[in-house]
Give the backbone structure.
Amino acid sequence: MHPISQSVTDMTRRELLGRGSLGLGSVALAELLQGGQAAASERPLLPHFAPKAKRVIYLFQNGAPTHVDLFDYKPELQRLHGQPLPGGFSEGKRFSTMTGQADGKLMLAAVEPFRQRGDSGAWVSDFLPHTAAIADRLCFIRSMYTDAVNHAPAIQLLLSGAQIPGRPTMGAWATWGLGSETETLPAFVVMTSVTKNTSCGQIFYDFYWGNGFLPSRFQGVKFRGTGDPVLYIRNPSGMNSAMKRGLLDDIARINELKLRESGDPETASRTAQYEMAFRMQTSVPELTDLSGETKQTLDMYGPGVTEPGTFAHNCLLARRLVERGTRFVQLMHAGWDQHNSITTELYNQCRDTDQSSAALIRDLDRLGLLEETLVIWGGEFGRTPFIQGDLNNRQRWGRDHHPYAFTIWMAGGGIRPGMNWGASDELGFNAAVNPVHVHDLQATVLHQLGFDHERLTYRFQGRQFRLTDVHGQVIHDILS
Amino acid sequence: MNSRNTAICLLLCSSSLTAAETPDFSRQILPLLSENCFQCHGPDAEQREAGLALHEQSAAMKVIRGGDRSASELYSRITSSDPDTVMPPPDSGLELTTEERELIGSWIDDGAEWSRHWSWEPITRPAVPPISSQNSAGVRNPIDAFVQKKLFQTPLQVSAEADRRTLIRRLSLDLRGLPPAPGEVTEFLNDLSPQAYENLVDRFLMQSSFGERIAWDWLDAARYADSNGYQGDQERTMWPWRDWVVEAFNQNLNFDEFTRWQLAGDLLPEAGYEQKLATGFCRNHMINGEGGRIAEENRVDYVMDMAETTGTVWLGLTLNCCRCHDHKFDSLSQEDYYKFYAFFNQTPVNGGGGSGQTAPVLDAPEADQQQQIEQYQQRLSDLAEQIRLREAALSSLQSQWESDRRAELTQPQQWTPLRADQLRATYQQLEQSSDGVILASGPNPANDTYTILVTPQVSRIAAFRLEALKHKSHTNGGLARSDSGNFVLTEFEVSVVREGQDQAVPLAQGEATYEQGNLKIINVFDGDPRSGWAVHEGRPVDREHAAVLRTKGVLELMPGDQLRIVLRHDSVHVSHNLGRFRLLTSSRPDASLNQDSQQQILAALKTRAGDRTAEQTAQLRTAQQSEDADWKKLTEERKQTEGKLAAVRKAVPKVMVMQDQADRRETFILDRGLYNAPGQSVTAGTPSSLPPLTADSEPTRLQLANWLMDPRNPLTARVLANRYWQMLFGQGLVKTPSDFGVQGEIPLHEDLLDWLACEFRDSNWDLKSLIRTIVTSHTYRQSSARTPLQMEHDPDNRLLSRAPRYRLPSWMLRDQALAASGLLSERIGGPPVNVYQPEGVWEDATFGRKTYSQDHGDSLYRRSLYVFWRRIIGPTIFFDNAPRQTCSVDVFRTNSPLHALQLFNDVTYVEAARVLAEGVLAEPNKTDRDRLDLIFQRLLCRPAGDAEAEVLMQGLQRSRKLFAEDQQQAVQFVSAGEAKVSDQPVTEHAAWSALCLAVLNLDETLTRE
């Protein structure tokens, strides 16, 4: 063999296979799974400090849940029901073209009763009984705010730090920074769902899990809700695994001949990719095979858990993914955009998400995974404390987009449980106490993963970019 | 990632840079200043600290004294040991190395000679390096001389020429995007002429597949897609522009014209169809039709996209950095950005709506559509003549007609209201008042049925009249208590009750005062409970309506007969039950709604011809004509032909194109890039640091295009030459094709790039000639095998001592498989096609709003260029492409198991494999080894090697055994796709198909060598 080819072969074997079989190579193999031989700049970095969370599950509630009906209890809003918005709240603020000016809008009280829950006394509406029951394990941030007033820019801002598409999303940053812990599944997985027959589902753009300018292997892999979860995961019709194994061996042997002649390490890498693909063909069906789950577990996640494409099913898969080493799972559930359906569709929306969100926390806890798994639940903004629609037509009550205050919750991953952080004003209109911008949330998530958000940067077009742009402060008070 | 150029620098700089040599400012010093100082002392005036700017010579000399580093504050600051004064400051995270400080110091000592960033300097044609006799073997043209000159300073040498089989495959894939046919390979191998290769290049350049291949990269840059993107993602019909691009490349339209037409074809004095069509380039941006979006915000986005795309494609500049502030590194200000933006700020587009055919548009009919249009236009002109003649004839018969009609019309129609004996609704209460009007009350159910039993006061009935009447209890005072005030009557049934027996009365015709879309009056007697009649006119229901239903023949009643009339409301539109109505009958078979006009006609007839008003004269003429069978037939045909013409015209693709509105729109600098934060007003202009555009008044897009292609423009020729180099070598001479600014890569082969730029520019922008020059160089023709020395010294091949080797883009892999198997369709152009795609991809991404409807037959095998590109979810088969959302000129090359899954499992490739197998099995009298060689010839242009053959023949035996054991599997495997399955013995066919699939997945097959 040509000496250089020999050294390349040795190197690639060592890098790609040797380290893997010794159990040290998860990094290299994981890179392969995501694609390409990594240049030095693409290798996982060392965290800046010891991570509290190894994994993230983002339960993204697409369309913006109404904070004033679900979490943010305001007696003053109840009292002012039907009255015009008092002065001093909306000056200089921009709303969607559906609302235009906020002046003169009538206040709309929360439609379901609120109660204080658990030892922490967190206010949670009767809309969400299951979430209410685990309130002591959650940390509510009640003073979130954002810059964008329409869905796509706001979601993009929350997930990538910028309103315009094209920046890497949180999951891409996390997997770029930390690499993967699985050799057979993608490190960054996205699953979407929508409440059936909802009138206001927003489209999921693929830039919501985009890699931006990071190498493309850091893009989230979207598991589909219908058909096979991963495209092309099934063998061609008429070809069984034994046949395929044989063909892959043939290909590997011929590629080996090619490698000796060309000396191109990409050739070895290609063979390894085909091997990885072959393994995924086993690992993905194993992942989605729920026959090993007890009835008790399945019941806990609620109806629909065995139906691919539901939020309940995705929650259970999220647990199974993090169990198997996936770094970042992003669930996106659409339908929260209640412009005219607070008294109707909102009930379906809560029914489809409340039980399984709570079940996921309980299940992670039961398996000892919660401690190192950061779970985040929330949408891209909140909804107006004033009404959209006609006060006399209760069936069509709604609320418009509202970026100035909203609520999210976090659990596990080194976040203090049973905590309430920040507050909005007496109408739930503006973040008032300890406001938390979406960049602060991003800084905190990266912090829990062991990164200083100001130092996790990537050079592109001559500039160092980061998830938090030039902003963001870690919310140290909510860390345990 | 300061490692840009590190390997090269080690190779070139360390050995050649001695203390005696002056550091090169633009290559060595400017990058250091940019990287370490410009954040605070660069072009961005807002962020500038201490008023010090280091990007301009005059300002920088305040802290630099040429010839004396010790007298230069810059030097003392960068070498200071005091953390309070040292630059860059410790908290910036930036740091200069000792070597870098020394480099700056010696540059100052040597006089601090200043120049501009290399790409801003005018392009001058570099002298071609002389070639010594020992190097002449590797020199076929000046490209090689430049390459040799650099290599001479290193331990590396050029590689030998690749073998002819590799060469023809490489050239064919690079220039045509397709593998050569086996016959082409043989011809080339047997061509003993010294010009064999050059002749091959010329042949390929003349083929239409050249335009199809080279168009791909242009479409990526032009963010071409077949839908708008964003919510809704409506379809658009920009594909005639795409076909124009292919044709322009094939015709070798000079690149300056190519540019001028696309940016400003509409403004050319002789602007014709092609020039206007070409401006579709600018309009390929995404369109946001999301509800709640502010139109002006959209419009500003679109204009920014046009400006930034132009900036990237021709100037290689990251203009987008200056939307919100001055550029951090390059000499581009926010004002420059909005001056550039102003060129595109004059279209009449207002940003509203989400149509994929937002005006201004250009009709771009397909050939058959054009033919139909001409046909219909001809027919219409014939009809017009015939109608004119018929009307003249009728005119001469008018007095006779008038007297006939006068007699008839003296007896007006009589409508008699029906008085019910019994009134019943399934759910509501019905009550009739003395004038016959019936009102429904009580809770309004989803669907109700009214039954009216009546003893008519007349003996003949030829027509019923149903009047839908307003009432204050109705929604908005309309016609029903539904959500809109509209009703849907689904059936109107009449029967005669004679001696206790019901006998149905068939209805034959109906007319109504208004019909809402498909909810037509004839639906009420079609027996279909789902169809019906409704009257919503697109505004709140604000007027009463009526319908006349004529019976099939006149109904003669006998004494004692009763009528049973049933009105059904079984629509899916719930609660759309008539709220107030009246029923009447007439004995006249011609009873109609236009009773009023008949009264008017009667009045006109009674008036003496001389005393009639113009309106009355016209009324009579119309009445006479409308009773004439010939006239009616002709006008009916005219109406239908006009309808057909309108339908064809509607189906004609409309390409969004450029046009400037008459009133000039003022352009403002937008604070932080926000549409609603206008600042200072600016006029159109080019960046001030580049050569000026001279114009008398405010310059137009046309002048911008001319300025871009002006020989004095330092960027355009370099940027374009670099991109075509990138297309042929897998990476550019400047590795950052979208950034020629100071933070972009400084080319190692700057002279070569400048020489190519001059060749391109000075050839009057002859693209085929540029490509020919590149591919006929020895540099291009080298072998791609690598040596240990190359791996050690130049792993990235920046010195070009070998040909690059890289995986083909996914779109080309598909075309290769189709071509090798013989499936490829040769059709050029036309509407996009939907090829194989896993089920549910669109549906999943759009909540079922977009349904994927796969095409069949020939469409499945069109080149990748013609595959429908849905912007929010691109074709899944192209796994490594620019996303076609915004402009992209970068290379997307990845290697992931997801791609392996696709290339092995997707029906596209399995079908290609089994069809390829069919082809070789159909060859008579061949051994297995012969057949294997045929497969290799088709994909790799060579026979299989013995070692390869051994592996694959063993594999073939194995597959034969496995498929023989399971015939069912074999049948399934050879039935992949929709191509007709041959009658080859199934086990044999399956085993060979498996082998072909393996060969399609070999590293060499996937790679351009």
Observations:
- Chain A has one domain: 44-233+298-478.
- Residues 282 and 472 of chain A are 42 Å apart (CA to CA).
- The first strand of chain A starts at residue 55 and ends at 62.
- The domain at 44-233+298-478 of chain A is CATH 3.40.720 (Alkaline Phosphatase, subunit A).
